[in-house]
Amino acid sequence: MQDTAKYLIHADITAAGVVERSDVVGAVFGQTEGLLGDELDLRDLQDSKKVGRIDVEIRSEGGQSFGEITVASGLDRVETAILAAALETIEQVGPCRAQIEVAEIEDVRSAKRREVVERATELLNDFEEKSIRTEDIVETVRQQVRVADVTDYEGLPAGPRVADSDAIVIVEGRSDVLQLLKYGIKNAIAVEGTDVPDAIADLTAGRTVTSFLDGDRGGDLILKELAQVGDVDYVAVTPSGKSVEDLSRSEVMSALRDKVPYETVASAKSLDSIREEMTQTGESTTADGGAVTATPSEDTTDSQPGPGTQTGTAQAETTQAETTDGTVVEETETAAVTDAATSETTPDEGDEPAIPSLSDHIEAVIENHSGTARLVDEDATLLAEGDADDVVSLLESADEVPRTVVIDGDCTQKLLDVAAQRGVGVVVSAGHGEYVKQPTAVQVRIEG
After folding, report:
1. How many CB atoms lie within 10 A of CB 314?
2. Read out DSSP for 346-410?
3. Domain residues for 203?
4. Which of 94, 110, 126 is the last residue of a domain?
5. Distance between CA 319 and CA 400 in Å, rounded?
6. Are residues 230 and 327 in the same domain?
7. Domain shared by 432 and 325, yes or no
8. What pLDDT score does 114 carry?
9. What SS3 class is residue 274?
10. How confident is the model at residue 198 (pLDDT cuts 50, 70, 90)?
11. What is the band of 408 on the pLDDT scale with cuts at 50, 70, 90?
């Protein structure tokens, strides 16, 4: 009956003695008989299925009994209310004085409506989370294709050519492997942490190994450990403070093309010094046995170099010939190599001075204890400068979103929160401040 009932009468009962369920049911039928007339007689209503069974839960404590009575009703609202009021006329249960008080009349349909609303809301939220907007279709397909290309090499994320390639690129994480796959580089493998796995150490034996790690202290430490447990031939130097997953196609190709022998890195004071030297000179440091292989098109192969471009073209052709055994980049365009090569020119005397690097800003702000803060874009161009204490307001009011914030002061939670909101990638500070949660999208470098 309760499954089809429209209303539920909930009543509380108190008896001055020990009574049982049968005593309560008997009192309900006996003391309401004839009270409401033939039309609302409980026995007749039960026989006609207009009233359900009377449920009683009773318990005894300290010589008294307490319980709840539930009656399912298929009558209308008025008749149900009358029946509920009739229950309160019961004054005795068995041999004991008793009192019944109706707590509420529950509208079963209303409760079901609430359940329908709650469930419909859950279904709608789940539907919206899983739905794909039209503008997201292309990116979603690209992402799924990239994920499908990621293979598993002894538990580590890797490109599909790692197992059979003569040359490999070692990166930090799965996202770096995905980024390189996006640009056609199919022989990258991730170390997945600062502890270099034995599988990668073994993999470096007998192969041309290029390390391509993030430009932070973590990447530098991984490189040192990798060189201790395995064989590293070349190092692709990333911009300081940048992750491989953040690099554009041209930046990735340039870094791999201009890789340096590991011996050069080992003898240098730091990777930052090499980065600064490469930024200031703009000279290629590509070594033999390269890491980039491009598939030349017919137009590039047959065409003759024009005036002023012979040096760059020859360099591109030499790189292709020397790296045909490496196959780090598969199915890429010749332009990725030739464009970068032909664009390298030696500045004449009298030209404008070299563009400042991020290291220059760090030296000017932090190492010189300037007490200031600078907002710098991805090309190390100064966007804004102000007092270090006002760095948050300086960042909030900046017209152009900076790539890096350099501050002669501590990194604070407020600064990190605003940096994440504005889309800043790196915060370089003089010291660690008081912050409990670092946004995943913001890297923190301490140069103090």
Report:
1. 13
2. PPPTTSPPPPPPHHHHHIIIIITT--EEEEE-TT--EEEEEEGGGHHHHHHT-SS--SEEEEEEE
3. 141-342
4. 110
5. 38
6. yes
7. no
8. 87
9. helix
10. confident
11. very high
Check: CB of residue 185 under 8 Å from CB of residue 162: no
Return the SS3 of 411.
strand
Average predicted confidence (pLDDT) for the chain: 78
User: Residue 38: its pLDDT value, please?
Assistant: 85
User: 421 and 281, same structural domain?
Assistant: no
CA gap 186, 161 in Å, rounded: 5
Ramachandran region of residue 89, left (φ > 0), alpha (ψ -120 to 50) or beta? alpha
Question: How is residue 245 written in tokens?
Answer: 């997953």
The pLDDT tens digits of the residues spanning 114-153 come to 889 999 988 888 876 666 666 567 666 666 655 557 888 8
> How would residue 420 be classed by pLDDT, with cut points 50, 70 and 90?
confident
- On whether both 25 and 153 belong to a single domain, the answer is no
Which of 56, 89, 110 is at the close of a domain? Answer: 110
Q: Are residues 257 and 368 in the same domain?
A: no
How many structural domains comprise the chain?
3
Mean pLDDT of 431-445: 81
Give the tokens for residue 325: 């055994």
User: Which of 344, 346, 186, 326 lies closest to 254, judged by CA?
Assistant: 344
CATH of residue 266's domain is 3.40.1360.10
CA distances from 250 to 40, 123, 336 (A): 87, 44, 7
Residue closest to 292 by CA, chosen among 167, 123, 158, 148: 167
CATH code at position 19: 3.30.70.2690
Q: State the sign of the Cα–Cα–Cα–Cα dihedral 22, 25, 28, 34.
A: negative
357-394: pLDDT as tens digits: 888 899 889 888 889 999 999 888 899 999 999 999 99
